[in-house]
Amino acid sequence: MKFWVEEAGIRWGLDDSTAAHFSLPEQHQNTWLFGLNRMLLGYAMPSEAGLYNDVLAYDEVQGLEADLAGKLGEFFRVLIDAQASLNLAQNGEQWVQTLTTLFTELFDLDTGEELAGQLIRSQLDNWLTQLDDAGFSQPLPLTIVRDYLSEKMGGERVSQRFLAGQVNFCTLMPMRSIPFQVVCLLGMNDGDYPRTIAPVGFDLMAGRGRGRAGIAPADDDRYLFLEALQSAQQRLYISYVGRSVQDNSVKVPSVLVTELLDYCRQGYCLAGDERLPEHESGEKLLSHLIHHHPLVPFSKLAFTEGRQSYAAEWLPAARGEGELALPFFGDDALSTESDTQSNVLELAELQRFWRMPVQYFFNRRLKVVFEASDGAMEDAEPFALDNLNRYQLRDALLTHVINQGDDEASLSAFFQRQKASGSLPLSHFGELALEAEQSAILAQYTKLKPCLEAKRVPQEINLRIPTRYGEVSLQGWLDDRYRDGRLLYRSGKVRAKDRLAAGLITSANVQRVRLSRHVLSVLMKRSYGCRLRQMKPSHDFRTT
């Protein structure tokens, strides 16, 4: 979907009227509705058919993917209708009807979310009741309705039943000392409990209340901890993180947990340890009460020493039965020994390797593809072209005039197509950008036009090249052939890789192939990495 949005030319705004809300002229190009129309039209017709009502079809929306475009269209239909209704001033009854309809169309609540939906409906009903009691029936703008509902719903909480099932999760709160069979206290680390509440800056009582009678927040947490102890009927489970996940250093529990352990050590002992010294019986009691669990699920300690783990997928790793992963860069990647691979080399593969040898080695041999990270989506209206878009515009214009001519009608059709694709800047900025690039491209076309006459069909290449590993068959097709020879052109500057690609074949009739004997052996035996810095000078191989 992100690729569709970028390719369809969507930049900013919902529809034509979005810019008018900010006191700007209406603009259809590069809006969401503009791109959505391109997507839906692309499912009905190809872009080669031309414009339909000034809309250029986007060809990527095909087959089963059209269902996603249909859902996106339905979503924007709801948004456009909501934008039109929310911008109108309405009375209370009309606002409740509009918001209820919008809530029903946008949200599909399940059983767990029904309480939140009921809260919203109840607030709307209460607001309508207040308006009726006050006898207020004048139209209200959206700002007043939004401020009122934000204030009311911001202070409300979705109430839930405390006893919702066999297992209940809750926070420590007063007056919840209800007997339970098992009580579990989680996250009882030092600094987390008792909770630390930082005073606000404008609270003058925070500094003056020291030493005076009152209940501190820490005392409240001590009382809640005591209530949790009294609620446990059979088991009391207290958990805290005892080791740091960064350096495995020891982390202490809450001071309340430490005091509880000290109390148990001083007042109790295990059966049969009554005659032992106090410190020995206390240490044995602590070792019985405190259990150390591993931080990782595949640790051997999770499956030994009387513990039982239910994560069966980690059992082979704990037993040491796992298999070692194959090395990422093995000796076979750089092997130069002969193999059973075919001795046929495609010309396109040779050119791709010649341009970027390291990338070719990673893609073809190691099966590694380094994909560029997706950048942030453009959310600003385009008023100027960057270097990449400027080159793409020049290249598209050059291709168009070569195929369609450079007359006024052809250039006007090209402008309309580029505008319909959303690739040009807005309004007259697009005309200025096209005029700035048009003169240079037409001058280049004037030089290329005499060389583009009498285009010939592609010629097949089938050469037998002797190498140290045997003969190699170089196969491919030689295209871009004209009466005067093979013509390669580019709307921008000629780069080094363009010269390399053109230098592999130096004549149109394929009389000479200039390449390195060692490059062929490297390509055929897939040993690019270890030999690239040892390439020998190029040799000429003449063909018969």
Determine the mean pLDDT: 79
CATH superfamily of the largest domain: PCRA, domain 4
Q: Domains counted in the coordinates: how many?
A: 4
CATH topology of the largest domain: PCRA, domain 4
Lay out the secondary structure.
Blueprint (H helix, E strand, L loop, with lengths): L1 H6 L24 H13 L21 H21 L5 H15 L7 H21 L7 H13 L25 E6 L19 H4 L8 H15 E7 L16 H13 L10 H12 L25 H5 L24 E3 H9 L1 H9 L21 H18 L3 H14 L5 H22 L10 E9 L2 E9 L2 E2 L2 E2 L9 H8 L8 E4 L1 H9 L2 H4 L7 E4 L2
Parallel strand pairs: 1-2, 3-5
Antiparallel strand pairs: 4-5, 6-7, 8-9
Commentary on this structure:
With 544 residues, this protein is mainly α. It is built from 19 helices and nine strands. The chain has helices spanning 2-7, 32-44, 66-86, 92-106, 114-134, 142-154, 205-208, 217-231, 255-267, 278-289, 315-319, 347-355, 357-365, 387-404, 408-421, 427-448, 496-503, 517-525, 528-531; strands at 180-185, 232-238, 344-346, 459-467, 470-478, 481-482, 485-486, 512-515, 539-542. The chain has a three-stranded mixed sheet with strand order 3-5-4. The radius of gyration is 38 Å and the shape is flat. Mean pLDDT is 79; it is low at 506-544.
